[in-house]
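Try this one yourself first.
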């Protein structure tokens, strides 16, 4: 009797060791995926550091230039609609550096932000490579376009944030004055923080359909729930639009609100497709049983 208990204990111990080894094997695999993604980000960061004149003068400082693409398009739109108020031909305010190592850390931080932005699609690819072996064949097929769609949505969000949200916010905040006695003078850290936050935040917000897809597959979210919560979502979208576009005009707010609302509607469609696919899979499994 005691021999059987001893054998059973040895077997259980073996199973526990095997499970622990499997867990650590997964951690090791994840570590290497993250290392490869980090190397890609570092390479993009070095590239941005080497070509920093273009990165800083054209990309980072672009929204402060009256000849920026968005401002030129607004001027053309104002001429077409006979609304001269649309045209932005001057960005008031002055940017200064107040720290001894400020410009050096500016170059490093902004190059790193560019590296993270450019390396994000590859990070998604490495995450997909890590998750893929744990999925069933039908789940792999269903999620085969994850990296492509997530990357495209992120890039669209970055472009929308950089060309729409950021210039509108910068032009408004740079010219906003409580009193003429107060002159607008901004530190370069404050400016870089505003540009990067507005741009990257919009890129992340555009990942909403991917989040809906994941939650729908888990069973947490359904198309019916999203339809029922549409009125609350609209209020939330308006709040988000008001926060990321601190401009007083309704038109600018609508320019941000409409794409976010369309993303929510796309999320409903995605949730419906996932739900239909899951129900079909369950029916097929029941038929086989």
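Now uncover the answer:
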């Amino acid at each position: 009797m005691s021999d059987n208990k001893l054998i059973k204990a040895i077997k259980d111990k073996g199973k526990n060791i095997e499970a622990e080894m499997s867990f650590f094997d997964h951690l090791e695999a994840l570590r290497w995926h993250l290392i490869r993604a980090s190397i890609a980000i570092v390479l993009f960061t070095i590239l941005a550091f080497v070509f920093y004149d273009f990165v800083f003068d054209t990309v980072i400082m672009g929204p402060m230039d009256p000849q920026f693409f968005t401002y030129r398009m607004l001027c053309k739109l104002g001429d077409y609609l006979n609304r001269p108020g649309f045209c932005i031909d001057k960005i008031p305010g002055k940017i200064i550096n107040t720290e001894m190592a400020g410009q050096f850390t500016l170059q490093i931080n902004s190059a790193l932000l560019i590296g993270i932005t450019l390396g994000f699609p590859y990070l998604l690819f490495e995450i997909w490579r890590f998750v893929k072996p744990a999925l069933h064949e039908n789940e792999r097929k269903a999620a085969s376009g994850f990296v492509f769609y997530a990357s495209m949505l992120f890039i669209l969000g970055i472009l929308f944030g950089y060309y729409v949200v950021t210039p509108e916010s910068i032009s408004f905040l740079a010219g906003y004055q409580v009193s003429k006695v107060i002159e607008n003078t901004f530190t370069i850290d404050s400016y870089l923080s505003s540009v990067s936050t507005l741009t990257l935040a919009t890129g992340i917000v555009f990942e909403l359909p991917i989040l809906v897809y994941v939650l729908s597959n888990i069973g947490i979210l359904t198309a019916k729930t999203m339809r029922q919560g549409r009125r609350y979502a609209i209020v939330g979208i308006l709040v988000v639009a008001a926060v990321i576009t601190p401009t007083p005009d309704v038109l600018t707010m609508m320019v941000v609100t409409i794409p976010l609302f369309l993303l929510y509607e796309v999320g409903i469609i995605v949730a419906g497709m996932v739900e239909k696919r899951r129900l079909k899979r369950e029916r097929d499994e029941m038929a086989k049983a």
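Discussion: The longest strand covers residues 94-96. Confidence is low (pLDDT under 50) at residues 5-11, 13-21.
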